[in-house]
């Protein structure tokens, strides 16, 4: 196996260890909202990747996607507590991408091409808006965010939904 290749086994282990870390952070009253936000972001990213990589069942993919959204919302709440506008904008962008993935999964479960699914346009617009907000921050490497936007939007626009 290529060392850079993520597998569901590696991601499952990461999710387990991030969850353990969250448990221990919650035991420490000195944990800052920023620390919580960063860990919730890792949990969101890991859950979303698991949803995208696991092919065992549609319900498992949906469960990981739902979990990613919940972690993202927790990350957003903690970032808002910190008052870090750039962090908030980045999390909102990631949540928009997670919403795209959830629409893709819903379309597939419904047996509809993602590009013809009713909720598609709304989430596409949201990703583009969030990307625009990120562009206002001069200190971000926008190439990565643009690649992510293109990747996720590709799930909804290509005929096969493979991006």
TrEMBL record:
Domain of life: Eukaryota
Name recorded for this polypeptide: Uncharacterized protein
């Amino acid at each position: 196996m290529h060392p850079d290749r993520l597998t569901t086994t590696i991601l499952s282990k990461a999710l387990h260890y991030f969850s353990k870390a969250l448990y221990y952070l919650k035991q420490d009253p000195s944990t800052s909202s920023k620390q919580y936000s960063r860990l919730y972001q890792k949990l969101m990213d890991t859950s979303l990747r698991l949803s995208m990589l696991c092919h065992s069942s549609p319900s498992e993919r949906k469960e990981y996607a739902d979990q990613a959204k919940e972690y993202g919302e927790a990350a957003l709440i903690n970032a808002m507590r910190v008052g870090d506008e750039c962090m908030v904008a980045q999390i909102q962008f990631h949540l928009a991408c997670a919403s795209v993935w959830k629409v893709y999964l819903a379309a597939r479960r419904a047996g509809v091409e993602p590009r013809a699914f009713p909720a598609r346009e709304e989430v596409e617009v949201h990703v583009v808006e969030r990307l625009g907000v990120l562009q206002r921050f001069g200190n971000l490497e926008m190439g990565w965010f643009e690649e992510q936007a293109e990747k996720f939007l590709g799930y909804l626009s290509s005929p096969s939904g493979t991006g």
